Each structure stands twice: as structure tokens, then as C-alpha cells.
Task: inverse folding
């Protein structure tokens, strides 16, 4: 049975998403194949991921996130910022919100296209050789690189994501280079299985890893430049404990439309 569904497209620093208002539960049994089709850049709408905005008890809304490979994903920071903008544009919220995601509650504020999103606290960071491994809502591997603009991120990221240590569960692979007062970041994302223009949980992981690398403490705000735009990560750091974590950056409406799907 074919039907048309309404969708909205948003992007956060080039990380792009399909957003669907699913408060009526019209897509309650969305399939992996359908998500993969909608995210396909040739045969569907095209996006790094898809999100359903749904009702939930006590909080403003629920964010249900799917990677472009069709599978439900872990927390997506840029997706979280985009769904906050979507909720504002739908009239569900004004300039503040608390919503539910796969890793728990998140608070956020929005002013025009700038969203500040509260992220999960981090209390444990491991090392894999010289690289840092940590979980900021999604698992991340952070390694320093030289001449990052010339790096083959797909080849090197794919190799790390699929090695014997990380193959089973997958991991997002971040390459970072010092740049002025902040850092330049490029990320190979699991679930997309390619480089994306930005990664919010990756930017958060990189900021924390570099704060440890440089032995920084106290309240910090660290600029992180991704291929698609500028992000900022702030937190309070005490040793390897990171609290009051906030991801700040743009969340921009691109377009809306209808697409025919088969249910």
C-alpha cells in the first residue's frame, strides 16, 4: 500500500537529517529498508540519518534516531540539535526544552539557528595506543593527525572501525589536528559507513580527549571546526570527569516536502 508522508530536512554543520513528525504514530513500524531508502541520496531524499519526533510522558518529545544504514542508532549530537529546531518550528517548544533520546534526557536552548544541547557526562576514558576511546552518547575513537586536509579519512577510518577490536559493535573514528585556539575534526561514522561533514558526539569526544592530552582543567569551551561548520564544546573537567557538557552549533531548516512510500 502506497502513501505519501511529509518530511522536513535539517542540517547541523553539514550533518543532514530527515525529520518526521510522528506524534500520530503513523510510522510506528518503520522498517530498516524504508529508512535506508529514504536516506539514499539517489533514490530517496538523502541524509546521514532519519529522526522521528514522538510524544512521550512528562517530557516535551522523544527523539528516535536511525542511521542511514536503516538501523536504529545511538545518540546523535547534531541530530539532537536539529530535532530541537524542528520542535521549535512545529510550535511544540519555544526557546527551551527537555526531551528524551536513546541515552536518556537532554536539555537544550535555541536562539534563531544556534542550539545549545546538553550532552551526557563522561567519567571514563580509555587509551588504545596513542588514541583515546570514550563514549559521549555514541562510542568514539580519537586520534591525532597531521596534514588532516589531505588524509584519506574513508580508508583509514574504515580500517579502524572494522579491525578486530571494534568490528562487532562498531566505533566512530575521529581524526583531529590542532588549529589556532581550537581543533579541526574529520570523522568516519559507523552506521553511515563513510565520512560525514560533522559529528556532534565526535566533536564532544575530541574536545574531551584534547583536554586530557593538554592537561586542561576547570570550565572550558573548545572550538571544533568540522568540514561543514563550526561547533563548540563546553564542560567542567576534573581529572577525567567531564560534567555540564554542552554542544553548541547551528541547526538549519533546509526544505520540506512529501515522498511516496510503500507500507
Result:
Amino acid at each position: 500500500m502506497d502513501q505519501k508522508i511529509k518530511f522536513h530536512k535539517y542540517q547541523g554543520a553539514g550533518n543532514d537529517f530527515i525529520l518526521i513528525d510522528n506524534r500520530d504514530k503513523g510510522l510506528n513500524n518503520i522498517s530498516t529498508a524504508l529508512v535506508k531508502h529514504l536516506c539514499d541520496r539517489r533514490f530517496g531524499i538523502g541524509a546521514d540519518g532519519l529522526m522521528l519526533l514522538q510524544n512521550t510522558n512528562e517530557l516535551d518529545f522523544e527523539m528516535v534516531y536511525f542511521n542511514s544504514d536503516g538501523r536504529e542508532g545511538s545518540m546523535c549530537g547534531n541530530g539532537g540539535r536539529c530535532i530541537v529546531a524542528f520542535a521549535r518550528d512545529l510550535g511544540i517548544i519555544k526557546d527551551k526544552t527537555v526531551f528524551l533520546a536513546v541515552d536518556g534526557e537532554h536539555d537544550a536552548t535555541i536562539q534563531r539557528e544556534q542550539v545549545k544541547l546538553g550532552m551526557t557526562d563522561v567519567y571514563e576514558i580509555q587509551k588504545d595506543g596513542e588514541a583515546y576511546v570514550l563514549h559521549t552518547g555514541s562510542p568514539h575513537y580519537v586520534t591525532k593527525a597531521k596534514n588532516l586536509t589531505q588524509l584519506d579519512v574513508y580508508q583509514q577510518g574504515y580500517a579502524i572501525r572494522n579491525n578486530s577490536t571494534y568490528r562487532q559493535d562498531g566505533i566512530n573514528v575521529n581524526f583531529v589536528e590542532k588549529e589556532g585556539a581550537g581543533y579541526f575534526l574529520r570523522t568516519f561514522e559507523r552506521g553511515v559507513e563513510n565520512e560525514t561533514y560533522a559529528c556532534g558526539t565526535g566533536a564532544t569526544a575530541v574536545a574531551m580527549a584534547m583536554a586530557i592530552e593538554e592537561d586542561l582543567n576547570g570550565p572550558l569551551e573548545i572550538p571544533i571546526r568540522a568540514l561543514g561548520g563550526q561547533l563548540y564544546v563546553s564542560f567542567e573537567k576534573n581529572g577525567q570527569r567531564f560534567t555540564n557538557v554542552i554542544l553548541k552549533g547551528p541547526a538549519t531548516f533546509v526544505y520540506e516536502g512529501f515522498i511516496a512510500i510503500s507500507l
